[in-house]
Design goal:
Blueprint: H1 3-23, H2 29-38, H3 41-47, H4 50-54, H5 69-77, E1 81-91, E2 97-107, E3 115-116, E4 127-128, E5 131-132, H6 141-144, E6 146-147, E7 154-155, H7 159-164, H8 170-181, H9 185-202, H10 210-226, H11 228-253
Parallel strand pairs: 1-3
Antiparallel strand pairs: 1-2, 4-5, 6-7
Bound molecules: iron/sulfur cluster (2 copies).
One iron/sulfur cluster binds next to loops.
Length: 254
């Protein structure tokens, strides 16, 4: 990167940090005091940031000053946050399986877009050499809620309960998905399913942990039932690519 580009990037980072801080709701004093009590930097240092290397952490609705569309768009424009989804599956009485995405905000993962409904989870973009880029006052609440332990780290807050608090704001998040992608949530999800299945078959998940790959492997049967056309297209694309790649490999070995 040229000197001018580095300076430009630094300036942009400073601007986006400033904007991010301004937009967040201030955390209650008692939450900060309590969190300082729970923080065990030594344990996290020893661990090396496993949770943050696995995926960015969740934002709670309470992290934000407003749920208005233009406000949330500013948050997304900082480049630090993505709209993501958690998928619920519901088997109807006629045996049809429904996939229902519930949208919420999460710290953006490396090499992922502002709209990241379904993909292999990667390292959080805010994880730096010495830990999280944020301090307690600006860290997403999902990260704050995680209590470090020498054995198994645990969340002191019910994650599902917090995810449910995003339900009243689905419409505004859907509109943002449309603004950024010109697609409805279901259209975007279908596109993501196709990419995910293709990436799975070609092994394009080097930045993800083994647990994540296993999770996606377990998800595949459900996705193939709910999105048969997208899965079929991904497999055909993979097969066509394999045919193209194969002669090259054979050529090398001759
Ligand atoms: S919270 Fe747990 S998993 Fe995350 S860095 Fe600390 S010790 Fe590691
Ligand atoms: S925002 Fe900070 S605490 Fe949350 S996953 Fe990223 S690096 Fe970890």
């Amino acid at each position: 990167m040229k000197k001018h580009d580095i300076e430009q990037k630094l300036n942009n980072d400073i601007k986006s940090d400033k904007l991010y801080k301004q937009l967040l709701a201030p955390k209650e004093e008692k939450i900060i005091t309590e969190q300082i009590k729970y923080e065990h930097k030594e344990i996290c240092k020893k661990c090396g940031g496993y949770c943050c290397k696995k995926c960015g952490c969740d934002y709670f609705v309470s992290d934000f000053k407003s749920m208005k569309i233009d406000y949330l768009e500013q948050i997304l424009e900082t480049g630090k946050v993505s709209i993501v989804s958690t998928l619920y599956f519901d088997r109807l009485s006629n045996n049809k399986l429904l996939c229902i995405p519930k949208l919420y905000l999460r710290a953006r993962n490396n090499n992922r877009d502002v709209i990241d409904l379904l993909s292999f989870k990667t390292r959080c973009s805010q994880l730096e050499q010495n830990g999280c880029h944020y301090d307690i006052t600006t860290r997403p609440s999902g990260g704050i809620a995680l209590i470090p332990s020498h054995d198994i780290c645990y969340s002191k807050i019910d994650r599902l309960e917090e995810l449910n608090k995003w339900l009243p704001y689905q419409k505004v998040l859907e509109r943002l998905v449309k603004r950024y992608t010109q697609k409805s949530v279901i259209e975007k999800l279908k596109e993501d399913v196709e990419n995910l299945v293709y990436n799975f078959f070609v092994g394009n998940y080097q930045d993800s942990f083994e647990e994540e790959i296993d999770e996606i492997r377990r998800l595949l049967p459900l996705l193939s039932e709910c999105f048969p056309d997208e899965c079929k297209r991904a497999i055909i694309k993979y097969q066509n690519q394999s045919k193209l790649v194969l002669p090259k490999i054979l050529k090398k070995t001759k």
